[in-house]
Amino acid sequence: MVETEHDINTKEGRMVDIDQSHQGLQTIMEERAAAYADDPYGRTGLFNRTFKIRGTREHPVIFEQYTLDHRLLRERSKLRKEASILARHFEKRGKAPGQVSLEELMLKIQQGNERVAKCRAEREARKAAEREKQTEPANGERGCTDSNPGSGELHNA
């Protein structure tokens, strides 16, 4: 790969640097895919092939093992994120254009909580008014016929 002189202090220079790094990762994946083309895992270029030795000293058994290259995937994802941020597809906090900011979301939640509190207060006032109507004596009836309700005496009729 030919390295060209670029200034990473400019947006274009950083984009060139990110693109070159991404191309390097792609080259690694393509070389692995060609080298491991006979194996289903190896065809993707995302796996490393290692050899393990099992068995005894007198009868060692060598077998190959494929492991996912997490570092390659992590680096590729990081480069893509940086490129998206530089291209203004995403802001630093991961907010896509057209999404609601955290402050706007918190304001909407607060307004919703205020509406809920207002509705609860109105409902409680209605329930209290209904309870008050039910406890009022109807048409001249008295609420208690005993003159001394707390005396505990039995009344014979």
Short synopsis of the structure:
With 157 residues, the chain is mainly α. 48% of the residues lie in helices and 11% in strands.
- Poorly predicted spans: none
Average pLDDT figure = 79
Shape field: elongated
User: What composes the largest sheet?
Assistant: 2 strands, antiparallel
End-to-end CA span:
112 Å
SS class: mainly alpha
Total strands: the figure is: 2
Number of domains: 2
User: What is the spatial order of strands in the main beta sheet?
Assistant: 1-2
The rounded Rg comes to 38 Å
Q: Strand-and-helix sequence, N→C?
A: HEEHH
What is the count of helical runs? 3
How much of the sequence lies in strands comes to 5-15%
Helical fraction equals: 40-55%
Describe what this molecule looks like in 3D.
With 157 residues, the protein is mainly alpha-helical. The chain folds into two domains: 11-99, no CATH class; 100-134. The chain is built from three helices and two strands. It has helices spanning 11-35, 70-86, 102-135; strands at 47-55, 60-68. It has a two-stranded antiparallel ribbon with strand order 1-2. Helix 1 runs antiparallel to helix 2. The longest helix is centred in the C-terminal third of the chain and has 34 residues, at 102-135. The radius of gyration is 38 Å and the shape is elongated. The chain starts with 10 loop residues before the first helix and ends in a 22-residue tail after the last helix. The model has no long low-confidence stretch (mean pLDDT 79).
